[in-house]
């Protein structure tokens, strides 16, 4: 567990906030110093859990669409629907805590809709495990005409912010959107129950404050963002994904549903209700702060709302002596580091790029999950859950109070955030002058970036202007994140360079420039800024997704022949004649190959690693091209190695399992426990190991069976676990060297082998590893670049000076030999670095098809 260092670093500003609405008295925030107990991070640095997600859940996650989206016809409120009940599930983990089981939610929502004309329910999609996702809207009734007016104003705020800033209609009649996200971690339950109680109170309340709030706001409640985990009592969804780490990639249907809510509703304020930190932790966060959003607007509003929530929670009267509840903590004020808001993978930080100017993770206080769930008496668990529900409810009510009192300012600041992006205006660094009323702002809080003028994504084939699968996927992903993209209708010049027809252009003069830049930019090496980070510190779709992305710092796009696009141009193409060649440099191409192999197509591998498909399979190739949006070319190459369908046994993380299945591999999850229970190796061609398999913990029988399999079949290993199995089985003669386990980020690499042919010159690392003392027959497929290989992220040497990027520079990051390949990088991390996926696919095919230890593969 990584632990933050708690220090009373920032003075506390005592501000009186009116909390009169909903019967709350006028209160002064409690002057809480640092929590005497250190704040601990969630989870271990390295994910060593073996994935167990069923293929059906992965398939649903890959294909599920969310129903939330821009409506063709805007309807008024309420929008009632009767929800069919779910089967009673006595195994729902919520029941033990006295909380609402998932099967009781639909009946509760039906009952809430019947209370009056303020509550509406929509189904925004289904989880990876097939559960419905519910969005509840609470607002004063609107006619269809009024709802259309609200939508028109919402679009004006984003698309014409300079005009919106002057609009009297928006100032007086626009309903401020508020988003309360609950239960994104399935075993952090109580936000759901708190929100259901708040919704019921809002539905029935007759006081003037509630009427005023609902007349000038729309309140959106995502009842349970992770129903799979709620039922199972797990942090992750049915695919094993932590949804609060998935916003950059949006691999899971639950994440895509939350993303669409934020795009469609455009919340000015957001709460993400979590657990468990004692005392209750309420963001804003410690440095480093996300450098791509308008942090001055974000900090001002988030801090003010945090003070109101602090007052409301402390006013509940819970004490350490009586209830075991510590006073509220606000990390920006009470902590030095360790609860940063740097990466856009968390809900509040992602929301900031869509116009949210007050966003908070709220960690309620008393743990009821994990070992507490299994060991504490039921009465104590239910007492804790009741306290947590009350705390979450107080935070929600205080936020609604803040919105009622400060609606005009919140909307104005949202407009200003969009205006700066549209105009290409400079960011405003935080300081006591620019953010008055927020205490303790220092140079450690100043993070801004230099936005380029544009990004250009050239087509993969300059002759045909046909984009590569990587470029098309990246463009579609940008569009899904509400980033505006154009395409050149003819060649054009920008900043002294000519770009071809078909090139995509991302103009950074757009309302959500921060979203565009945070996805495409290299990022920053922040190793010298803080000693520890809460989670990943580097990410870059521009470097890791396989497309060429060029940063253009200056120039004018006026008069450029650009046409806005709503989707990437199709890539699919199959020549009319001849043998076909399929490059294997993208996960879509790997998926297309696997679809052909499943149909028995006789595919061979060329010396350059590409797949050669006979002309007789043209019809099947055409179907694969259209299904996976890939392009085949004509070739005279014959190919030297026959390829066949692979059956992969995988002791890997959930993200890696998902990525393997995304590429179309037939995968059976295994682990130490599975092998000890007796695993039939006869249906397996290759083993991939990165987590959850310990050779020393196997029974003698399981160890003998594994060793026998490895004598005749291939091993692909990743990280320390893969390297340990390699050593135990005495396969590749290498010395693995573990870097700092807290390190992560984007690194420069040098590709020198067949497995990494045509791979991007960048990789992702998390607890990096490298290999020295390479023995006879061991080949270096890839190495870390010389100098400082870290491009963006956080990678420091250990206390003794070892384990840093300087030690890794020039060392092998991927090695191979015989039937074994070892990775020191994280090419499938959380289903994210798409451009790295083919390295693993090639490794699997190479070791599975190696006829002897002498074959080069």
Q: What level of helicity do the residues show?
A: 25-40%
Largest sheet descriptor: 10 strands, mixed
Low-confidence segments, ≥5 residues, pLDDT <50?
1-41, 68-72, 852-857
Oligomer kind: single chain
Tell me the overall shape.
globular
Give the tally of β-strands.
33
Specify Rg, calculated over alpha carbons. Answer: 27 Å
Q: So how many helices?
A: 26
Strand portion: 15-25%
| Secondary structure category | alpha+beta
How far is it from the N-terminal to the C-terminal residue, by CA?
Answer: 41 Å
Overall average residue pLDDT = 92
Care to describe what's here?
With 857 residues, this protein is an alpha+beta fold. Strands 22, 23, 24, 25, 27, 28, 30, 31, 32 and 33 form a ten-stranded mixed β-sheet that branches. The chain has a seven-stranded mixed β-sheet with strand order 1-2-4-3-5-9-6, sandwiched between helices. Strands 15-10-14-11-16 form a five-stranded antiparallel β-sheet. A hairpin with a 5-residue loop joins strand 18 and strand 19 (611-613). The radius of gyration is 27 Å and the shape is globular. It starts with 54 loop residues before the first helix and ends in an 8-residue tail after the last helix. The model is unreliable at 1-41, 68-72 and 852-857 (pLDDT under 50). Its cofactor is Zn(2+). This is M14 family zinc carboxypeptidase. InterPro entries: Peptidase_M14. Keywords: Carboxypeptidase, Hydrolase, Metalloprotease, Protease, Signal, Zinc. Residues 98-399 form the Peptidase M14 domain.
